[in-house]
Amino acid sequence: MSTKVPAKAAPAARKALARKIIARLKREYPNATCALHHQSALELAVATILSAQCTDARVNMVTPHLFAKYRTAADYAAADPRVLEKEIQSTGFFRNKTKSIIGMAQDLVERHGGEVPQTMEELTALPGIGRKNEGVVVDTHVQRLTGLLGLSKQTDPVKIEQEMMQIVPRDDWTWFSHTLIHHGRALCIARRPRCPECVLNRLCPSSTV
Length: 209
Hints:
This protein is mainly α and 209 residues long. The protein has helices spanning 11-28, 41-50, 56-69, 73-77, 81-88, 94-111, 120-124, 130-134, 140-148, 157-167, 173-186.
């Protein structure tokens, strides 16, 4: 029996749908983790800034060079903005991201001894990564899938994030983002979605099944 919910459903209905989607995704992907390649908190912070409105796959193509060249917060803090802009240009919005990376690094050097802080309050105060650490990360996959699944009719990533924070349990925010990204790559592929194989096909209003 299908339990699909229209894309313009009321918040209560979307919240109920989100719970059902989460339950099925947890059974399908119990070990979903961050798709951004990193080996330290600093590398993750930089990758997180770069991932704004950019696929993780593209970020992972750019970061090996960055991580080899810039090894400490001081290295990023002293970076030439014009050079860094060219190095990260393919991730989009590169001027703003350059300002965020350098600003974050300077903040780390000046206020945290060059180390990424551990508390949520300090993390959310850092330039460029605050929202990524306290909410639902909305990359291109999450933006696309929340629309297809009827969880949001918004197109603005910030508005989508705000809606997801209302209907997804707080403890699942990070997991939810990682899992939708993985699901978007594995099955709900933009040009050739594999609906017959999808665990969400009876819940998804966009399913062809």
